[in-house]
Specification:
Mean pLDDT is 82; it is low at 1-18. The chain is globular. The chain is built from 17 helices and no strands. It has helices at residues 3-7, 20-53, 58-87, 91-109, 114-142, 148-156, 158-172, 177-198, 214-221, 228-248, 251-257, 267-296, 300-313, 315-319, 323-350, 358-387, 391-409. The relative contact order is 0.17. It has 415 residues and is an all-alpha fold. It is a multi-pass membrane protein. Its main location: membrane.
């Protein structure tokens, strides 16, 4: 038994080996549908709706809505994770979160003011993070340590698959936003229902509520950050994700206002071309990186190099704001980000401080994943409006990704 196996949460012995393939497929579907919502709504539908309501202030409005909704995303993920740890179940939180998100997406599609759109997106972020916290915890619950890299690679395919599906659905419903919102919400609800039906909860001991003051409970939520390796994994993930989504979240406006597109190609149509390019590259590096990291039992080199590649790719559209430049950027950035997310997820499961707090601590880690995705529009809008355009946005996004690569070096307990 390795040191990692001695110190990390093992999969439950009640999860039989023959069920692993089915479990991985269901997790891929659950994560892909979640990311279809995040990418389809966040990258296409929400920017289009805001631009239609207030075209003159679209950059600032998108930033404000993103910043406010970040509070909900950041708070609900670790709270939901801790609550699912406490009652010993995942499926009720997965199904409840997805159904509530479907209702929230329907609400957004039915309103036509900035305020109501913002309220609706906050509700969707809160409920989708309830869903995400419980889904994420299934990997440390039920997947053996020796298979974490492979499992993370398969689950990591959710971003290219879900991102492509989400953007394609959204780009086909630009004239029918309500339909787009409802279809994406229905995907998440359907995936949650399948997971809850065919992947029944593994019985877990209920954790009684501690009789401690609220201040101490809050400290317990964040206690994993006191662990050296977990803290640097958190920082590296947050920096890379912030750099990536600061650009990707504004890609529709970048294509409209910054890139010289070929004649007759509209920004939403360009998104439908760029997304499959990026996601195909992401899928390739996700699978190859995850499998090789398991075979060689090396994680840090994959995470560091891929983060550096994602950061370096940001220089291309800054130097060459052309359609060709965006195609090359999308491919290279997809390669770097896909490998990073696949192998970094394995790293995180290997530095969790305590098995009994796996969902809570993965929920804290998900703050580094979900929080920056929602904060990114606020950061991007501030950069674009104060520094005078999208070129500084690419430069700062690249710097953040490179800093994320450097953070990986400081992790000690993983090779």
């Amino acid at each position: 038994m390795t040191a990692d196996e001695l110190t990390q949460p093992d999969a439950s012995p009640e999860a039989p080996a023959p069920s692993q393939r089915g479990l991985m497929l269901l997790l891929l579907l659950a994560n892909a549908s979640m990311l279809a919502v995040y990418m389809g709504v966040g990258s296409v539908l929400l920017p289009l709706q805001i631009a239609a309501i207030d075209p003159a202030n679209k950059v600032a409005v998108l930033g404000v809505i993103g910043g406010v909704s970040a509070i909900f995303a950041t708070a609900f993920n670790p709270i939901a994770g801790a609550l699912s740890d406490r009652n010993g179940r995942r499926n009720p939180w997965i199904l409840g979160g997805a159904l509530a998100a479907l209702a929230g997406l329907g609400f957004i599609g039915s309103v036509d003011t900035v305020l109501l759109v913002g309220i609706g997106w906050c509700l969707v972020q809160a409920t989708m993070n309830v869903y995400q916290a419980a889904v994420t915890a299934i990997v440390p619950d039920r997947v053996p340590v020796a298979r974490r890299g492979t499992a993370s690679a398969l689950v990591g395919l959710a971003l290219p698959v879900g991102g492509t599906v989400g953007v394609m659905i959204a780009s086909q419903t630009t004239g029918r936003l309500t339909t787009g919102y409802l279809v994406l919400g229905a995907l998440a609800a359907g995936a949650a229902l399948l997971l809850a039906t065919f992947c029944r909860d593994v019985p877990r001991p209920r954790v009684p509520a501690p009789a401690v003051p609220k201040r101490e409970r809050l400290a317990a939520f964040l206690s994993a950050l006191a662990d050296h390796d977990f803290r640097w994994a958190f920082i590296g993930r947050a920096l890379l994700v912030l750099g990536y989504f600061s650009v990707v979240g504004y890609q529709l406006y970048i294509l409209d206002d910054h890139i010289a597109l070929p004649d007759g190609l509209e920004p939403a149509e360009a998104m439908a071309v760029l997304t499959p390019v990026s996601m195909a590259a992401m899928a390739l590096s996700t699978v190859v990186g995850g499998l090789l990291s398991d075979r060689w039992n090396r994680r840090k080199i994959f995470v560091g190099v891929s983060a550096a590649l994602a950061g370096a790719a940001m220089a291309i559209p800054a130097i060459s704001p052309t359609w060709t430049g965006m195609l090359v950027f999308s491919a290279l950035n997809g390669l770097g980000f896909g490998c990073f997310m696949a192998v970094d997820t394995a790293v995180v499961t290997l530095v969790l401080p305590r098995a009994e707090d796996a969902a809570r601590d993965m929920g804290v880690l998900n703050v580094a994943n979900a929080g920056p995705q929602i904060i990114a529009p606020f950061v991007a809008s501030a950069i674009v409006t104060t520094l005078g355009g999208y070129t500084p946005l690419f430069v700062i996004g690249g710097v953040l990704s490179l800093l994320g690569a450097l953070s990986v070096v400081l992790i000690r307990g993983v090779r």
